[in-house]
């Protein structure tokens, strides 16, 4: 069904899905498709220049003040969970975390540094009473509190904050991209590394994966990754609970319980 995003005569525009409802597919007089986004961050231009997202073609300000950005619509596929073991994923994520250009742009648009203490305090505030009494939640919060003194890390870079395999795209030309940057923050790279390794990489392969990324697997890094993956798992539980998506909520509660067992937390 066509939507009311008026780019002028000759354009066809359709919703592209997504949580925000601000993404579209557009085509002008049957030519190549474009991916459009309404009011995207100026961060997109730097991501495009760095080759992290598909190329930015143009930016247009509408009469109502909205800004529309257009990127190449690439033929390709989302990565599957097994694909996350690929060397290319480690290399691209390392490039992102170590990019001075990305970091400077996030600082310019007012992004603040995420510190573990603030993350923990914010998390405890949003936990509903029914959730805060769940055994797995209680044990997890205790784990986060006990390990908080050991989590501060000197180096902070740009973190995507949602490295789910669905956000990684491989084009038909074998070009890898990481998309959906609305939640990007300045934080310890372990915020991304923890979920990615725990969700997708066999533990006996962590050292090799991190070698491709450019890091050594140390006790300090492993502790930080554990902290952030517990934090993000609780955040996912809260998100699904608030949306009344009970099946997903139960799955994440089970995942948290399994994680606590693996970490020997009780």
UniProtKB/TrEMBL annotation:
The keyword Transferase applies. Keywords: Transferase. InterPro entries: Aminoglycoside_PTrfase, CcrZ_PhaseVar_Mediator, Kinase-like_dom_sf. It comes from the Bacteria. Signal peptide: none annotated. Residues 16-227 form the Aminoglycoside phosphotransferase domain. One of its GO terms (molecular function) is transferase activity. Pfam families: APH. This is Phosphotransferase. It comes from Schinkia azotoformans LMG 9581. The lineage of its organism: Bacteria, Bacillati, Bacillota, Bacilli, Bacillales.
